[in-house]
Write a structure and sequence with these properties.
This protein has 217 residues and is mainly alpha-helical. The protein is 74% helix and 0% strand. Helix 4 packs antiparallel against helix 5 and helix 6 runs antiparallel to helix 7. The longest helix has 31 residues.
Length: 217
């Protein structure tokens, strides 16, 4: 499980969470966000966190990889909680830290139990009413899909750049890392843009009245 590859978080399963309707999972995530805003105090925040942990256990999220994926969030929660404790007291510190972990863990449960193509289809359906104000649901879904695919690709480019710099003995030289990475990133963006244009996806296709972008599963 890697936060650099959200599309790769999905794990097939037959748990109660996996079998639940998508609208229930997304609705529950939205309700959790509202509850974290409405409920106040450390004890309610800890109760919500405990509920989210139980939900993650029901969904059978692997403990080790889940903790590894949540490590940046946990560190952030500790730092923010410590700052809030110093500024406003331990009650606020505990509440803020618990709320942050609860929300991210709940979102992880939804992502782990739902295929990326199913989520994108749900985004398209939810945005269809906005066609009247000029929003293209397929274009939005395509943008999200490209973002999900680009994040691991950029991480791979960063690794290749770091290895190349290390081979030249320049692994501690920022210019040897940042400049090649920037060039490779721009090159990938240009390649992606050319591929989209070759398929008639973009402003040019819209101007010609051609078909909009489609999202592959």
């Amino acid at each position: 499980m890697s936060w650099l590859d959200p599309a790769g978080l999905y794990r097939p399963g037959a748990t109660l969470v996996h079998r639940s309707p998508l609208w229930l999972r997304l609705g529950g995530l939205a309700a959790l966000g509202v509850a974290l805003v409405v409920l106040r105090g450390p004890w309610s925040a800890l109760a919500v966190l405990a509920t989210t942990v139980v939900l993650a256990a029901v969904a059978r999220l692997p403990l080790r990889s889940t903790l590894r994926g949540l490590a940046p969030v946990l560190v952030t929660a500790v730092l923010v909680g410590a700052y809030q404790t110093w500024q406003r007291g331990w009650e606020v510190g505990v509440e803020v830290a618990a709320d942050l972990v609860s929300l991210v863990l709940a979102a992880t449960v939804v992502t782990v139990t739902t295929r990326a193509d199913v989520l994108l289809d749900a985004v398209v359906r939810a945005l269809r009413p906005l066609r009247r104000v000029g929003v293209d649901p397929d274009a939005v879904a395509l943008a999200i899909s490209l973002m999900l695919r680009t994040m691991p690709a950029l991480a791979d480019l960063a690794g290749q750049t770091r290895d190349a710099a290390r081979a030249r003995g320049l692994d501690r030289n920022p210019r040897a890392l940042l400049i090649p990475l920037a060039i490779r990133t721009v090159g990938r963006a240009q390649t992606t843009g050319d591929a989209l244009a070759a398929r008639g996806i973009g402003d040019g296709a819209a101007a010609r009245g051609g078909p909009g972008p489609t999202v592959a599963p």
